[in-house]
Amino acid sequence: MNDNARQEPPSRRSKRGRKLDPDGTRREILREARIEFAEKGFSGARIDDIGARTKTAKRMIYYYFGNKEGLYVAALEQAYADIRAMETTLELDHLSPELAMCRLVDFTFDYEQENTDFVRIISSENMNYAQYLKQSRNVKELNSNILDSVSRILERGYAEGAFRRKLRPLDLHLMIISLCYYRVSNMHTFSVIFDCDLTDAETSERHKKMIRNTILCYLCSDDEHPGTDA
After folding, report:
1. Distance of alpha carbon 173 from the chain centroid
2. Which residue windows does the record flag with biased composition (Basic and acidic residues) (predicted)?
3. Domains along the sequence of the chain with CATH
């Protein structure tokens, strides 16, 4: 089948006469496609396998997403949309700057550890130099709210005297996700090299506390320290 061929709308009823749920079907396809792409990358993933996972005809997948690239881009967008949507439920504006920052760090740590497919699909797209993500019209808007949240926490922290080090929201966001992301993206190689289990509950809790304290101590310290090169 030509991936770019125009597809006819799927029937509103299945072969058994059950009325279809287009939105539900689309969500299910995206959910399983995200797993497939995370496991096999763009090149290794197959539309037939995604169809088998969802019991959806290939024709219907093409109708919703156009082609394999369209499905992959949509899966990437959904991966970002999911984490950003959950971040909006943290109610960070109602907490002190210190507690808000701790909650954001804890959430990032837990989400990435519990959603390894998120880390893997993003890592896979980095292997592609983000060539498919560049096709997205929504990815920048989808991710804009996290920088707004970090900015508000920082502004309150500076105004209340809780934070001393001046940082750009983007730099702080990068610092947080870097500390949390590496544990998941490199857990297998790291575990083999150092004979440890990064999924162990006690180890995870210790690392979460370390990252939380690292971020807070950095924000509460001065920009200059003795011995720092000018």
Report:
1. 13
2. 1-11
3. 77-220 (1.10.357.10)
